Each structure stands twice: as C-alpha cells, then as structure tokens.
Amino acid sequence: MIHFSFLLVFLLIGSLFSQKITDCPTSAFDPPNHLNQTIWYPSDFSNSDPPLFSDYYSCLYKINVPKGYHAEVRLTFNQQMPPIIPAPVQVIDSQSLEEKLFSATDVPYFFVSNAGFIKLDTRELGIKFGFRIRWYKFPSTFNPIILFTQNSDTQPLIVPSSSIIPYQVSADTNVSLVVSNPSQGYEDLLKSLIIFDGPDWNSRVLGSAYQIWKFKEQKVSSGKLMTVAALEPFYDTGSMLLFQDFKNTKDFNKYQCLICYPEDVCDSVFMNCGNTESAALSTITLSSQPAEYLKEIWLGDYGVLDVYMGRLTREKSNLITSYQSYGKVNTSSYLPQKFQGTVRTYHLHGHSANLHFTLSPELFTNNVPVGRHGFFSSKFYKSGTPQKNQDSFDYIRTTDTVIFNFEITDADLAWGSTLNIWIRDKSVVTYNKTFTSSSPPNLLAPIMATGNYMEVSYKTNYGQLTNGYFMNPVVNIDSNGKLEKLNLPKLEVVKCLGNSCSIIVNLNYPKHPKFCITIQELNAFTRKRNQVYLNINSNVCIPKNEPKACTVPTVGCERLIGNLNITKGFDRIDIKELEFSYIANNSKASYTDFKSCYALRRAVFLEGGFWPLFGDKGCEQMESPATPMCFSDRGIWEPCSRSPITL
Ligand SMILES: *[C@@H]1O[C@H](CO)[C@@H](O)[C@H](O)[C@H]1NC(C)=O
Ligand SMILES: *[C@@H]1O[C@H](CO)[C@@H](O)[C@H](O)[C@H]1NC(C)=O
Ligand SMILES: *[C@@H]1O[C@H](CO)[C@@H](O)[C@H](O)[C@H]1NC(C)=O
Ligand SMILES: *[C@@H]1O[C@H](CO)[C@@H](O)[C@H](O)[C@H]1NC(C)=O
Ligand SMILES: *[C@@H]1O[C@H](CO)[C@@H](O)[C@H](O)[C@H]1NC(C)=O
Ligand SMILES: *[C@@H]1O[C@H](CO)[C@@H](O)[C@H](O)[C@H]1NC(C)=O
Questions:
Q1: What pLDDT band is residue 79 in, cutting at 50, 70 and 90?
Q2: Which ligand lies nearest the alpha carbon of 32?
Q3: Range of 596's domain?
Q4: pLDDT band at 107 (very low <50, low <70, confident <90, very high)
C-alpha cells in the first residue's frame, strides 16, 4: 500500500512535467513560516532543466520582501528558438533597475524590501523557465564597521567587499563609492552587495555593487552617510570597495575601479568623458601583486591624462605625472611607465581615451632597444604623507649602448636612507654613485653616462618614514640610429610638473646623423614652463626658408656652457634673435622663435660638438657652473677637458 502511493505521487509529478505551464499565479510570493525553506516555481526542477511553458504565455511574478528581510532568487531559463528582441525575461529589482535576459543558468538576484519582479513573455520561443527563492532576515542589531573619509584625504579608503559585517561610512560632503572588478565568475554575486543611502540597512537602497561595476559609475549618498551590507547567503566576490569624499569626484562621467589582476583585466581600458569632459579610473594594487605598467595611451582628439598617487585632489599635491596631447599622439616616448603605491587615479579631461596596461616588465627588458621609459620613483612617492617601506629597485636594460640621461628631482635621504645609481656598459661600470644625507645629489643637475644597463635602488631603514625619491630619466631615444624625426607635429605643449623641470632630447651626434628636432617640437618642449633646463642634444631640422646662419665667434665648450659672450664677429641682428629665442627668464612663459637657435646649433654640430643650454637667465647672464661641464668623449657628463672647438 505504501509502495503504491509513492508510485502514484511519482506519476502525478511526471504528468505535470510533461505538460506546458499555462497558468500565472494570481498572488505574490511571500516568505514561508520557516525561512530555511526554499520556494520553487513552478515546482522543484533540476537547475539546468526547468519546465516548458506554453507559447504566448506572459506573467509578472511579484516577490514580496517585508521590511527587515531580503531574498535571493535563482533564475534559470533557456529557449529553443534563437534569442530575439525584446527579451523574453526581465528582472526588476526593488530599485526599479531592469535587467533583460536572453538566457540564464541559476543566475542570482537579490531583492530587498518591498519587492522584486520577474516578467516572462514566452511568445513562440519555446521557453523553459523556473526560479527558486529564499528569504533571509537582517540581524536584529546593526553593528557596523565605522569608517570615515575626508575631503582633504589624498588616499581613498579601501576595504574588501568580503565582510559579513556591514560598513557605515561618513564623509565631509557626500560619500562616493566605486567597486573593483570581482574575481572571474563572481560577477553576478556582486548583486548581493547592497548600498544604502544613510546610516543603516533601513535606509533607502541606492543600488548594488554590481551596478557600480557594470555601469562604471560611482554611487553617491545624498547625505554624509552610506551603508554597504553583504546580503545572505554570504559570497566573497574578491572585489574591493573604494570610498572617498564626493567633492572631487563629482564631475566624473564614468568612474571605473580595477585591480589589474589577472593582467587581461587592464589590457585595454576605455575611458569616456561624455559631456562632463571628465572621467576617471582608479587602480588598486594589493601588496601581493605587482604594480601596473602603463604601456600605451590613445587620447582621442584633445585630451589630458593626469595620474594621482591616491585620489584626485584639487590642489594636486599627489599628482605624479601627466600626459597631454592635441591630436592622436602616440605617447610611447614616455612609456612604458611603472606606477606604484596602493591606489592610482587616472583622471582624463577631454573626450575619451584607451589605456593599455601590463603587469609584465619582461616585455620591456629583453630584446627591445630601450626597455623602460618614464620616471623612476620610490614606492609611495607623492602619496601625500611620509611612508614606510618606500624601498624600490628599478632598472633599464637596452640592446645597444645608449646615453642614460637623467636628473634626480627629489630624494629624502634622512635617517640613513640611500639612493644608489649605477650604470654599466657591457661589463665596464661607467657610473656608480650612492647618495646619502652627507652626500646628497645635486637636484635637477642632469647626470649622463653611456651604458646598456642602469640600476637604481632606494633603501630606507626598517620602519622609517620617508618621502622617497623621484628621478626623471628622460625621453631616451638614443638607441634608434635610424630615427630621423620625433614626428610630434600636433604636440603643442609638454607639461612640466612641479616648479622646475628639464627637457632632454638626447640624440647624440654622430650616432644619429640624420636626426633633427623640429622648431615646432622645440616650441612644445619649452612652452608654459616655470623654469627650464634645456638640453637639446641633437640637430635642429632645417626649415623650408632657411634663415641666414649665424657667424659664431671662436668659442669652445666651456665658453658656451659658461658665459656666452657675443663678440664683435657676431651679426647684431642675429644676436637680438638669439636673445629672443634663448632667453627664458623665470617668469617668461614661452619661447616663440627658434630660428637662430637652429642656426647656431647647426654650426656647432657640424663640428661634432655638444652644447647644452641653460636657458633660465639669458645668453649674457648664463649661469656658469663652478667647474665648466662637458660631455666627454667617454660619453660622461663631467668637467671639461677637451680644448675649445674652433668654428
Ligand atoms: C527549519 O526550521 C524549523 C524551525 O526552526 C525546523 O523545525 C526544521 O526542522 C528546519 N528544517 C530544515 C530542513 O532544516
Ligand atoms: C550631497 O549632499 C548634499 C547635502 O547633503 C545634497 O544636497 C546633495 O544632493 C548631495 N549630492 C548628491 C549627488 O546626492
Ligand atoms: C606607438 O609607438 C610605439 C613606439 O614608437 C610603437 O611601438 C607602437 O606600435 C605605436 N603604436 C601604434 C598603435 O602605432
Ligand atoms: C659602486 O661603488 C660602491 C662603493 O664605492 C661599491 O661598493 C660597489 O661595488 C660599486 N658597484 C658597482 C656595480 O661597481
Ligand atoms: C665679453 O666680450 C667683450 C668684448 O670682447 C669684453 O670686453 C668683455 O669683457 C667680455 N665679457 C665677459 C664676461 O667675458
Ligand atoms: C622676465 O620676463 C617678464 C615677462 O616677460 C618681464 O616683464 C621681465 O622684465 C623679465 N625680467 C628680466 C630680468 O628680463
């Protein structure tokens, strides 16, 4: 008898399943008495194979979520016909966010009060469909992790999303939240991370972490408080939450947050400024992961990309570098650039950009003419406050012997910190210096040496706070003997960070007999600078209407580096032009004419000479170093020894 009734039940279920579902429930789904119970619709089914629904069936399912509750709905459907628009299934959550679906296998949705909806419209698609629901109750007491973020912070707050305890965050103005990419396969589960517009989970729902990640948009609280809570069942998605005060992020049209790991996440990142002309990307490096290298930037039309160590600040104290162009300039001559620290914010002004990152420095170290470009710095340089563990090690390897040409612009050598730089050419050490507080570097004085390997290491004593160091190693394009032009016709301004900087175009003759720099490029390199150190070690391109060449008096290396005394042999008119072109006193904003510069340089280069320009005081008053410096035959920037060149 017992056996018989089991068989009967089995047959009943079997016949139910073979029929197409035709009826739409008239009432909403409510939580059961015992919350450990799962509600299935239409009835229990194996996840991949729900029951078939009849054609032209349409139904709106309502899932009630009383206050203090939340629900997880897992939805599965497939169709026998190819997907067509409009979508047969739509999920509408408690915040009226609509998601259109064309297929789903056990996809999770999370609803908070008051309700969520699922809309099904089968048409003739042969739809198999079903879902299951479980309700949960928020704990009766709200004991959050309390966090603060201030408008003046240079670093945003970063916390893992994998916290069972909710976060309550306050800010000076409003709280802004962005969410980094989740671990692969965990994307949908970000929907379980809910953002509330207020002090606790009874506040209005602002959305989910999924929306932030998916739409690349920050969520902002309407007041000073925001709550983020992970709903049950608890999932660890691997995302990080990045909170900051909204004041400086309000213009961002799109705001993405990425952990470039695995590497392909940041292989190509598109930024779109929309009509606010502003968009941002924050990247996070967790200590176990390598820092990212920016290897290529494509700035559509006009664009400026500022990079901050931490968050964007209005006073720009933590701005570490900036890329700027008019036209679609390939900025590779400054790249690849290694970025360090915990968070970087790439802020784009303009229309759109494509950023290409890698985590693999090997790409730049083997079998490439010059590996790294761009600046070197300690790990947390410019992150706002002195930091521990600033130690860093960097190197450039090249296939040919090149001129390493760099300047140290900042080095905190207090408390026994040291900065060592050494360069070798094959096995010969051509430069080796350790800077300490008792033998500090001459900031901004260029250092040059030839070699095929340069290594820089900064060491601090354990636990010691320092400001770190920064070193600008130049646009180094030496090793490309075939290079004839920089070809930056649309480059209008090269931006100088800080209140002083140097321009070094280091294409040494005779290795680059055909290379020349155009007058437009010279203009771009020197415009809008506060203080200029110019070292254009190359030929200047001959313009179409070649001006009359200068007659240069008998001067040698020392004379040119020191006082350039224009003697009688000089044509007076050319002297005026020279002054006009070369003289950049500290407050003068731009050079406008390089005609004479080109002529003089050409004359000097014909003799194989070398002529660095100290352009901050003017020809007559050029600052003369205590010991005149020359670029010697060994390729080292050192006190002059060669006899004056006669022109
Ligand atoms: C569900 O909870 C109720 C009441 O706490 C309990 O009696 C029942 O055994 C539970 N069922 C399961 C399957 O855990
Ligand atoms: C930020 O906070 C202010 C003051 O509470 C409020 O008026 C404003 O609407 C908030 N901004 C946003 C984007 O919610
Ligand atoms: C940009 O320039 C670099 C170096 O000159 C070159 O390797 C790279 O292919 C260029 N990128 C594009 C897309 O042209
Ligand atoms: C650099 O100089 C220091 C001290 O003079 C020495 O100990 C070190 O071995 C040198 N490094 C190289 C690579 O020659
Ligand atoms: C510059 O040259 C003039 C004329 O030869 C000479 O009188 C003058 O002393 C020189 N000035 C300097 C600073 O060498
Ligand atoms: C420096 O440049 C400013 C602006 O062009 C000018 O007014 C000033 O006289 C210059 N100073 C010197 C010492 O040439």
A1: confident
A2: 1
A3: 481-647
A4: very high
- The closest-lying atom of ligand 2 relative to the alpha carbon of residue 250 is 13
Q: Are residue 595 and residue 485 in the same domain, yes or no?
A: yes
Q: What is the pLDDT of residues 162-217, one digit of tens each?
A: 899 999 999 999 999 999 999 999 999 999 999 999 999 999 999 999 999 999 99
Residue 500 shares a structural domain with residue 471: no
559 in a domain, yes or no? yes
pTM for the full model? 0.71
In this prediction, residue 643 carries a pLDDT of 34
CA triplet 643, 566, 405: central angle to 5 degrees?
Answer: 55
Within 6 A (CB) of ligand 4 lie 422, 429, 432
The dihedral region occupied by 416, where left means phi > 0, alpha psi between -120 and 50, and beta the remainder, is left
Distance 429 CA to ligand 4 centre (A): 9
154 shares a domain with 86: no
E strand map for 209-254: 219-220, 225-230, 240-245
Residue 275 lies in a domain: no
Cβ burial, residue 265 (10 Å; 0-12/13-18/19+):
middle
Q: Which ligand is nearest to the CA of 331?
A: 3
107 and 202 share one domain? no
Number of domains in the chain: 4
Residue to mutate (ligand 4; options 419, 422, 426; most atoms within 8 A of CB):
422
Taking alpha carbons only, the member of 234, 237, 59 closest to residue 134 is 234
Examine the fold and report which residue of 479, 513, 533 is the final residue of a domain before the chain moves on: 479
Pocket test for ligand 2, best of 149, 169, 170, 173 (most atoms within 8 A of CB): 173
Give the span between the Cα atoms of 71 and 134, in whole angstroms.
Answer: 6
Question: By 3-state DSSP, what share of the chain in percent is helix, strand and coil, each rounded to 5?
Answer: 15, 35, 50
270 lies in a domain? no
Give yes or no for a contact between 476 and 505, defined as CB atoms under 8 angstroms apart. Answer: no
Distances (CA, A) of 77 to 29, 43, 56, 91, 125: 19, 14, 16, 12, 11
Q: Are residues 67 and 92 in the same domain?
A: yes
Confidence at residue 594, expressed as pLDDT on a 0 to 100 scale? 36
Task: Assign 573 a pLDDT band (cuts: 50, 70, 90).
Answer: very low
Ligand that lies nearest to the alpha carbon of residue 250, given by its number in the listed order: 2
Residue 429 CA: which ligand 4 atom is closest?
14
Q: For residue 262, is pLDDT > 90? A: no
Ligand 6 site, residue 105, Cβ cutoff 6 A: no
Res 644 pLDDT > 70: no
Q: Is the CB of 174 under 6 A from ligand 2?
A: yes
Q: Are both 448 and 546 inside the same structural domain?
A: no
Of residues 459, 377, 378, 370, the one with CA closest to residue 417: 459
- For β-strands 376-377 and 428-435, DSSP reports them as unpaired
Q: Are residues 535 and 633 in the same domain?
A: yes
Domain presence at residue 60: yes
